[in-house]
User: Which sequence fits this backbone?
């Protein structure tokens, strides 16, 4: 194990902002993309349904 | 075969001659863009001569680009594009005549005018010659690659801006080698390596771009 | 001989037609009828190879026109609803250059004769820009007097023509058919064309 | 074999198949990501020169790899779509582009977040970052072209052609940017990975890259399903699908 304590881990040797921002942003993008695609699929099905009712 | 090629070339040149204002617009755009930089940066000759290669090349690139939308748009609107697609000759061959005409009308004048603008930028004499060589080798590539973009965006909404987005990234190697040649010569180094790479890019696009443009036109008229 | 088999055409979301087929032999005329939007123009463009059919194939002399365009295109003369004329060129220049791009060398005398035949010789040296719609159409149609292609595909050739010009054109098409040519055309009006055999194809919207 | 391919290349058979595959790819991605993160943070040693900041490479490098890899795969699907006139191939190419663009953007942002503590500037015009920037332009051009053409068939074919033109140009662009970079000494900072890299560091990067790969496949399948639904909204199979969903 590289880290003496959790706080040392979160501190990242003083580069916490850069490291966690990178990983956080990546996670955010990934989650957002999955969410947006679910939404898009739902919208597409809903639209198909509306068209069917005509 | 050559007869048809020459006819396409002659027709496009004749049309350009009857609409001289179009040529003037491209040239004027080139002149005005390259004159804006000294106004924005300041008139110090040392600064100007160091940015000159890049500025002149970017200006030439943009001037070539704004005229791209005319390459096939009129032909598509009046139906002569359809006729060209149905000609017995290979489309890529006819397209190369149109691209050559475009270069003669929009590229060559810029090449000839560039050294004059270079003088305004306090460029050394040797570098001015290299500027002309590099533009002579590089501007055909701009027309060739640009033709692909023009054909892909034919009749698409917002095609003027779209063509810039498609084509400008593909212009980067030409820009790097072209401006690099002039900069090398301005620093007293040999521009030969740059110019050979520029020629290599031009040759490659000369072979591939008409084929890609022809394919893009076929897709666009469907 | 032109053969179409099982053609289907889709534009956007709409299926315009399917299972369309015909055989066109030397000397025969194919009339394509149908309302606006029924796919007449699409069918003609498909027969030229400008549009790829969703299904089916088109054969010229037994060979697919898609794979053997170099055999097919020299035999084809197409006139769409666009005239294919350059506004800044004169009628004569348009005609000559158009023919040359289609692979045919045409002298100024021959081009002038074609313009005379359809009655528009006096506009020969005017830029097409100043001509009326009907006059432009006639300049484009004059190319038929120069064409040596056996297959003509004409989209509404009679639109915007006066009675005299209509007659002249119909006579020219009859002459072409009599000489063993083939013609495919769409038209809104009845035109007196003499043909060995006439096939009518109706597209429903 | 031949028939099989045509069977799965029709949207209504591919749609449920993709639906079944997606969870598996997501599970693989999560698992690889978990192991990868453990290796990157718990096992990989601190770098002598860069301290802990170097750990950014565990997202930066895999994202950069994926951005280029996805472009290649996209061009491959595009070529297949053009050659075989297969709708599914073109849809796959279209489905990959946004994910590729996202990874390109991530590679750029994380690269700049890495550069700031190391060289004190947010942006260096080094060969890698500059090429990534140009790659982003290529992705954006592809997406812009596809979205501005209304007819889906034309959009597919035009996009495919552009992807092919792009893929021919990518090596030339990369070479020219490298050349340009070595000539201009002023900005000769090389952001390449340190030559003496511990094996665990490499392992971490590989695991993360694999995780991104699996994720990309899953997301591309999700997106291709959306595209199918949108394009074939009036077809029978979408109608019955949406009717089933509403019950």
Assistant:
């Amino acid at each position: 194990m590289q880290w003496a304590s959790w706080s040392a881990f979160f501190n990242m040797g003083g580069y916490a902002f850069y490291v966690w921002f990178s990983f956080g942003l990546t996670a955010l993008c990934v989650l957002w993309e999955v969410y947006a695609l679910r939404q898009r699929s739902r919208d597409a099905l809903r639209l198909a349904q509306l068209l069917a009712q005509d | 075969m050559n007869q048809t090629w020459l006819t396409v070339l002659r027709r496009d040149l004749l049309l350009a001659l009857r609409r001289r204002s179009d040529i003037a617009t491209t040239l004027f755009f080139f002149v005005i863009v390259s004159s804006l930089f000294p106004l924005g940066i300041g008139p110090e000759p040392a600064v100007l001569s160091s940015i000159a290669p890049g500025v002149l090349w970017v200006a030439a690139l943009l001037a070539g680009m704004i005229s791209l939308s005319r390459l096939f748009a009129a032909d598509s609107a009046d139906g002569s594009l359809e006729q060209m697609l149905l000609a017995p000759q290979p489309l890529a061959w006819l397209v190369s005549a149109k691209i050559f005409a475009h270069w003669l009308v929009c590229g060559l004048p810029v090449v000839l005018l560039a050294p004059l603008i270079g003088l305004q930028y306090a460029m050394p004499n040797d570098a001015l010659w290299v500027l002309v060589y590099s533009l002579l080798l590089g501007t055909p590539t701009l027309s060739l690659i640009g033709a692909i973009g023009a054909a892909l965006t034919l009749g698409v909404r917002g095609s003027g801006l779209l063509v810039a987005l498609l084509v400008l990234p593909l212009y980067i190697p030409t820009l790097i080698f072209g401006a690099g040649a002039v900069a090398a010569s301005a620093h007293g180094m040999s521009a030969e390596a740059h110019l050979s790479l520029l020629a290599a890019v031009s040759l490659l696009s000369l072979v591939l771009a008409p084929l890609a443009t022809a394919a893009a036109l076929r897709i666009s008229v469907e | 001989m032109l053969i179409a088999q099982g053609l289907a055409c889709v534009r956007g979301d709409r299926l315009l037609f399917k299972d369309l087929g015909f055989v066109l032999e030397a000397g025969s005329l194919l009339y394509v009828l149908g309302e606006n939007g029924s796919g007449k123009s699409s069918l003609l463009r498909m027969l030229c190879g400008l549009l790829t059919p969703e299904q089916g194939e088109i054969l010229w002399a037994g060979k697919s026109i898609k794979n053997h365009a170099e055999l097919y295109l020299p035999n084809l003369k197409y006139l769409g609803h666009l005239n294919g004329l350059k506004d800044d060129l004169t009628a004569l220049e348009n005609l000559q250059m158009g023919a040359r791009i289609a692979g045919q060398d045409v002298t100024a005398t021959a081009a002038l004769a074609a313009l005379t035949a359809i009655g528009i010789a006096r506009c020969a040296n005017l830029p097409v820009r100043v001509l009326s719609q009907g006059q432009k159409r006639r300049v484009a149609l004059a190319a038929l007097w120069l064409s040596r292609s056996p297959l003509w595909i004409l989209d509404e050739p009679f639109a915007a023509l006066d009675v005299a010009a209509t007659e002249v054109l119909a006579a020219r098409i009859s002459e072409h058919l009599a000489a063993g040519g083939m013609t495919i055309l769409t038209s809104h009006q009845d035109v007196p064309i003499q043909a060995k055999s006439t096939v009518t194809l109706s597209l429903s919207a | 074999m031949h028939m099989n391919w045509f069977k799965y290349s029709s949207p209504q058979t591919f749609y449920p198949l993709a639906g079944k595959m997606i969870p598996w790819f997501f599970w693989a991605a999560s698992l690889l990501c978990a192991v990868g993160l453990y290796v990157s943070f718990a096992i990989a040693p601190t770098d002598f020169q860069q301290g802990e900041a170097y750990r950014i490479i565990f997202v930066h490098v895999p994202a950069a790899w994926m951005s280029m890899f996805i472009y290649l795969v996209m061009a491959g699907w595009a070529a297949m779509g053009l050659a075989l006139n297969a709708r599914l191939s073109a849809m796959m190419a279209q489905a990959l582009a946004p994910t590729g663009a996202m990874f390109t953007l991530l590679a750029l942002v994380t690269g700049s977040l890495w550069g700031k503590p190391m060289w004190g500037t947010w942006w260096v015009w080094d060969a890698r970052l500059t090429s990534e920037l140009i790659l982003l332009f290529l992705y954006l051009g592809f997406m812009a072209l596809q979205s501005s053409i209304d007819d889906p068939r034309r959009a597919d074919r035009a996009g495919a052609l552009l992807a092919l033109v792009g893929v021919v140009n990518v090596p030339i662009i990369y070479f020219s940017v490298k050349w340009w970079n070595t000539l201009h000494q002023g900005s000769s900072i090389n952001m390449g990975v340190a030559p003496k890299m511990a094996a665990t560091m490499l392992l971490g990067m590989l695991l993360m890259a694999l995780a991104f790969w699996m994720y990309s496949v899953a997301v591309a399948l999700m997106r291709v399903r959306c595209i199918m639904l949108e394009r074939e909204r009036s077809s029978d199979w979408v109608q019955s699908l949406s009717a089933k969903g509403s019950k």
Observations:
- Confidence is low (pLDDT under 50) at residues 185-189 of chain D.
- Chain D touches chain A at residues 41-46, 51-53, 55-56, 59-60, 63, 98-99, 102, 105-106, 109-110, 113-114, 116-117, 215, 219, 222-223, 225-226, 229-230, 233-234, 238-239, 241-243, 245-246 (CB under 8 Å).
